Structures are given as structure tokens and as C-alpha cells.
């Protein structure tokens, strides 16, 4: 159910004569800009109603403008009197200022919410981020509520705060986000999407919501692969391809995700950007031919000669244990000769040759 927060506000109306002063909330009232006022000048038939400009100016009856920013009512009235005396020539004009409505303080919520809007902030009702989201009738289905940006506009500079609003749903969570101040802008971003394809268990399009990265941390390559259900057994995680479009140009870079996970090599686990595509290729595999029960290609790591033959169902009856030939993918012109009996019968495991992806093992036939 969508929650809509409604505040009932009574209008503050203060009318003061020349030289009066108003106090609001225990502090001396001064003009900041944005107040609705009425200026009366004796001898003028109609009062002048207006809103003080954001930089503090009011229009004066009979012409001209006066800056009242930072002035209380008495000081503002005196400034109006001085202006009328010098510009119009009326001596000791009788001027009064009525503050019909104090400055309206607003925050703004935009982006992936149902109803982007400005929100009036009332001193007696602090507005939390959660309440602002409720007033906007919640985020859209495409929103990334784990990385909501709250921009605080200060007098000298702006400060950006990143908030994970998904924590608001936790029962033990006491905080409902920062209390918004006048001029704050809440930006609910669209969830960045990453596409993962290839030798992956659940290929598809994933967002930051699926990856569940911390608010202050980027999405990373290994997280995307994990979110897609992990790699298949025949995947080659040492050559994962990241395709990124920058300035309308597509670039592909290969990364060793094995090194990223096993050696914590951050250079092989890059931060992802919206629109990235990840391709997890198939490993070259290890091929065994000849006198084994099930010739073919097999996957896994690490792979040794004895393990590959075991995966192929073992040797056939007339297989020649001492006549095994290994052709290296990277050096096919220099085959390696191996004797399986040294490993299986004599137990010399140091003779068990490690294989590289793409290697081809041929088991010959004993002609006796």
C-alpha cells in the first residue's frame, strides 16, 4: 500500500507598522527571500503585494527596488523610507510592511519515483528521506534505492550523501535516512544494468539491486558473474571479456577472474559501468583420443594426464600405457611422450603431467 503523508499547515500572517519587529521560533525574524509581503504607503490607494526575490529585493510603491535580505522588519522599513525620501522626495513617508507568509522552505525529489515533486518543509514536522519517498508514492520498478543521492546545498558548497534506502525495510533499522533541509535535492537513480552471457548458469540482464554492492562501493566483474549463478564447469574464467561502449566506440578487454578471486587481484576485477556486457567464454578443454573408453573433450581444473584418462573411463584393454603422446596447443610440433604405468603402477605422482587447456592426448594401441 502506498503511503501518502499529508501535513496541514496554518498560514502565518504578521502585520507590523513602522518600526515593529517580529520573532518567530524564538529567533529575530529577518528576510531571507521568498517571503510574501504587503507594503502599504500612506496616500496610495492600493497596497503592493509581492514575493521577496531570492536575492532579497522588494519593489517599492512609486517605483524602484530595495534589498531587504538579512534585515529585520524595522531595518527593512527604514530602508524603504530612505529610498522613498531620496528617490521620490516625500518627507517622512508612512510605510508599513505586512509579512503574509514566511519563506517557503522546500526540498525536491526527482528521478525514479512515481511522482517527482517539490516538498514543503515545516519546522514542526521534520522530513526524513523515507517520508519524502512516501510523499512521492515510492520508487519506480526501475529505481536503484540502494544508491539514492541526497544533495545538500550549503552556502559555500554542496555536499552529496549516498543512502541505501533498502535498509529502511529492516525491522531493527531505526534510521529513516537524513532529515531534509531547505534546498536539498533527492535523486533516485535508475538501476544500472549489466548483461552477462556465455558459459554462465543464469545468463541475463542484472542491476545493482541483484548485485547488492555496498552504497559506497562500485559493482565489480566477479559480483556480476556470481549474480548470474556462477560460471559453468567448462567456463574459462581466465579470459572473461568485458565489452564497454565509450564515446560510441565499443572496446573489449579480457580479465583473469580466477586471479581476482584467488589472489585478490583488484586489477583483474574491474568496476562495472551501466551498459557493460560480460562474455564468459568456454574453456578450450582437454581432448583425449585413441584407446580410452569415452574419447572426447573434458573440462575442469587443474587437469593432469591421469585425471583426464580417468574422466574418459580409463584405458581400453589393448591400450599402450607407455605410448601416450601429448600435443600441446601452443607447441604442437614438439609432442610430449608419457608412460602412464609409471604413475599408476609405480605411484610416481611427480610423473603425472599437468595439462593445459587445448592439449590433445592420444593413447596408442599395444600391437602385441
Characterise this structure.
Helices cover 14% and strands 30% of the residues. With 368 residues, it is an alpha+beta fold. The chain has a five-stranded mixed β-sheet, with helices on one face. A five-stranded mixed β-sheet has the order 15-14-18-16-17. A five-stranded mixed β-sheet has the order 20-19-23-21-22, covered by helices on one side. The protein contains seven helices and 23 strands. The chain is rod-shaped. A hairpin with a 5-residue loop joins strand 14 and strand 15. The termini are far apart.
Protein topology:
Layout: E1 14-16, E2 23-24, E3 27-28, E4 36-41, E5 48-51, E6 57-59, E7 65-67, H1 73-87, E8 95-101, E9 105-111, E10 117-121, H2 129-135, E11 148-153, E12 158-163, E13 185-188, E14 193-198, E15 204-207, H3 208-211, H4 221-227, E16 240-246, E17 249-255, H5 257-262, E18 277-280, E19 286-290, E20 296-298, H6 305-311, E21 319-327, E22 336-338, H7 340-344, E23 360-365
Parallel strand pairs: 9-13, 14-18, 19-23
Antiparallel strand pairs: 1-8, 2-3, 4-5, 4-8, 6-7, 9-10, 11-12, 11-13, 14-15, 16-17, 16-18, 19-20, 21-22, 21-23
Helicity range of the residues? Answer: 10-25%
Overall radius of gyration: 37 Å
User: Strand portion, in percent?
Assistant: 25-35%
Enumerate the strands of the largest sheet in spatial order, edge to edge or round the barrel: 10-9-13-11-12
Low-confidence stretches: 1-26
H and E order:
EEEEEEEHEEEHEEEEEHHEEHEEEHEEHE
Number of helices: 7
- What is the residue-averaged pLDDT? 81
How can the largest sheet be summarized? 5 strands, mixed
Head-to-tail CA distance between termini: 82 Å
Shape: rod-shaped
**Strand-pairing-aware structural class:** alpha+beta
Please report the total strand number as a whole number.
23
Amino acid at each position: 500500500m502506498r503511503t501518502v503523508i499529508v501535513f496541514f499547515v496554518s498560514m502565518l500572517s504578521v502585520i507590523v507598522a513602522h518600526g515593529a519587529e517580529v520573532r518567530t521560533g524564538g529567533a529575530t525574524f529577518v528576510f531571507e527571500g521568498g517571503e510574501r509581503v504587503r507594503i502599504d504607503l500612506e496616500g496610495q490607494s492600493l497596497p503592493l503585494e509581492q514575493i521577496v526575490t531570492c536575492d532579497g529585493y522588494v519593489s517599492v510603491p512609486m517605483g524602484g527596488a530595495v534589498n531587504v535580505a538579512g534585515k529585520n522588519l524595522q531595518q527593512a522599513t527604514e530602508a524603504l523610507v530612505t529610498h522613498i525620501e531620496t528617490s521620490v522626495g516625500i518627507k517622512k513617508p508612512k510605510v508599513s510592511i505586512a509579512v503574509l507568509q514566511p519563506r517557503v522552505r522546500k526540498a525536491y525529489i526527482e528521478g525514479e519515483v512515481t511522482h517527482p515533486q517539490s516538498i514543503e518543509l515545516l519546522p514542526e514536522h521534520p522530513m526524513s528521506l523515507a517520508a519524502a519517498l512516501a510523499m512521492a508514492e515510492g520508487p519506480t520498478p526501475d529505481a536503484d534505492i540502494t544508491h539514492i543521492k541526497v544533495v545538500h546545498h550549503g552556502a559555500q558548497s554542496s555536499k552529496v550523501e549516498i543512502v541505501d534506502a533498502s535498509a529502511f525495510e529492516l525491522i531493527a533499522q531505526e534510521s529513516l535516512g537524513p532529515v531534509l533541509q531547505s534546498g536539498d535535492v533527492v535523486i533516485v537513480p535508475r538501476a544500472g544494468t549489466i548483461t552477462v552471457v556465455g558459459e554462465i548458469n543464469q545468463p541475463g540482464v542484472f542491476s545493482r539491486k541483484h548485485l547488492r554492492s555496498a552504497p559506497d562501493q562500485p559493482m565489480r566483474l566477479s559480483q556480476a558473474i556470481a549474480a548470474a549463478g556462477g560460471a559453468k564447469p567448462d567456463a574459462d574464467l581466465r579470459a572473461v571479456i568485458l565489452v564497454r561502449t565509450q564515446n560510441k566506440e565499443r572496446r573489449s578487454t579480457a580479465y583473469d577472474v580466477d586471479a581476482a578471486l584467488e589472489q585478490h587481484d583488484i586489477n583483474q576485477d574491474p568496476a562495472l559501468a551501466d551498459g557493460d556486457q560480460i562474455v564468459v567464454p568456454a574453456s578450450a578443454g582437454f581432448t583425449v583420443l585413441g584407446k580410452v573408453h569415452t574419447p572426447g573433450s573434458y573440462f575442469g581444473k587443474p587437469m593432469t594426464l591421469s585425471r583426464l584418462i580417468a574422466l574418459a573411463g580409463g584405458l581400453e584393454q589393448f591400450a599402450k600405457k607407455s605410448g601416450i603422446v601429448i600435443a600441446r596447443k601452443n607447441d604442437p610440433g614438439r609432442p610430449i611422450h608419457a608412460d602412464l604405468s609409471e604413475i599408476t603402477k609405480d605411484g610416481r605422482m611427480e610423473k603425472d603431467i599437468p595439462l593445459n587447456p587445448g592439449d590433445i592426448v592420444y593413447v596408442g594401441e599395444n600391437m602385441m
